[in-house]
Amino acid sequence: MFNAYSFRHTTIKNLLAEAAKFDKATYMTATPIEQEYVLEGLKHLPVCEIN
Question: For residue range 7-18, what is the model confidence (pLDDT) as tens digits?
Answer without folding.
Answer: 677 887 888 899
